[in-house]
Amino acid sequence: MLKEELKKNEIAAMKARDKQTVNVLRLVNSEIKAYEVNERQEATDDVVIKIIEKQIKQLKETLEYAKQLNDEEKIAEGSFAINLLTPYLPAQLSEEEVEKMIRDIIAANNYTKADMGKIMKEIMPKIAGKFDRSKVNPMVKNILE
């Protein structure tokens, strides 16, 4: 399970005295633990992937802000954390692959602009953790036009 792999890598980083890696992995592991306590259930790989995606999204936002301020230290920290967490996500889909999936869904069901919600509902589970969710809506709108 992904959760165990993250914990194992955190312990290995502690032994190697790699504080930067420990801090990033500890943050993710604490989010996983918080989920398990709040939901009173074991975190599945899907949940762990969503937590990692959320962390990467927050890191990217922080990175953009740091770039505006020219804060080299924060830029380096954010880039390091993103590069550390990205390999834990499933293989990413290209825009072309997602566009083809959207076109297939539309063709199979004869969807129109009015069916935007149905298309989104159908495509989102297929790309979960494999593609930036914020890019999907504009892609669907573009295809339907």
Automatic annotation (TrEMBL):
Keywords: Coiled coil. InterPro entries: Asn/Gln_tRNA_amidoTrase-B-like, GatB_Yqey_C_2, YqeY/Aim41, YqeY/Aim41_N. It comes from the Bacteria. GO terms for molecular function: carbon-nitrogen ligase activity, with glutamine as amido-N-donor. Residues 49-76 form a coiled coil. Pfam families: YqeY. The keyword Aminoacyl-tRNA synthetase does not apply. PANTHER family: ALTERED INHERITANCE OF MITOCHONDRIA PROTEIN 41, MITOCHONDRIAL. This is Aspartyl-tRNA amidotransferase. It comes from Clostridium isatidis.
